[in-house]
Please model this.
Amino acid sequence: MRLEGRRESENVEDRRGMGTGTKVGLGGIGGLIIAGLITLLMGGNIGDVLSMGVQNEATTQTEFTEEEQQLAQFARVIEASTEDVWSQIFRENGLGEYDPPTLVLYTGSTSTACGQGSQAMGPFYCSGDQKLYIDLSFFQTMQQQLGASGDLAYAYVIAHEVGHHIEYLTGTLQKAHQRMQATSQANANKYSVRLELMADFYAGVWAHYESKMFGSINDKDLMEAIKCAQVIGDDYLQKRAQGYAVPESFTHGTSEQRMKWFKLGFQTGDVRRATTFQESDATL
Model:
């Protein structure tokens, strides 16, 4: 992506090196833990799962490598881009003034309005405080464990979480969570998939406008983002972790679905096409 000279968002809290860190023991089941970690990638409002246990230790890190600082700058630029893009989309579609989320950069673990967040959960959005949280080491995990890398792939992660914020601002997130609480786990999983695919679609819409407004995305960038969508599909991750997939347990969507909705958002740039809750299971 071409991002040179771009503004950085001021809606950022840098908590890196503050509070506590997290020890994550991979051991002999490292593949399963990584699969679970990536499954939670772009995980919406995860208040119900933030209570998972972690082993904490004091963190004293106050200096960061050049690579870490570059990733932090990159995240601030992408956050700024989502602010510019969604402000324009809201104006064009009569949705009022766009109220952006706050991007929180942290190391290891951090407190949120949804409970304690940790590195092992991957990036997530908390509607309780309208903040999206990311430990930047997650990008290294994406590259090393799944072979997903590149600026647009990393930006897709952030844009997806912002997509959940759009769902919150439009009321979709709240309605879905109410339905999820009043139904079976199997049906709740289906609602979760539709939320995740909608956030993928919104990430694609952001990329459409980012490219249109700044001319920053080329074909290589796009392929990197699509590959990222592929390798974080529930079916791909489950097959990698255990050799088979269990469709009724899917919470984020298959590789095919995730690629489909991201590409639809990128190709159309039309927020009115965010119809994941209107599609049948067969056409989703």
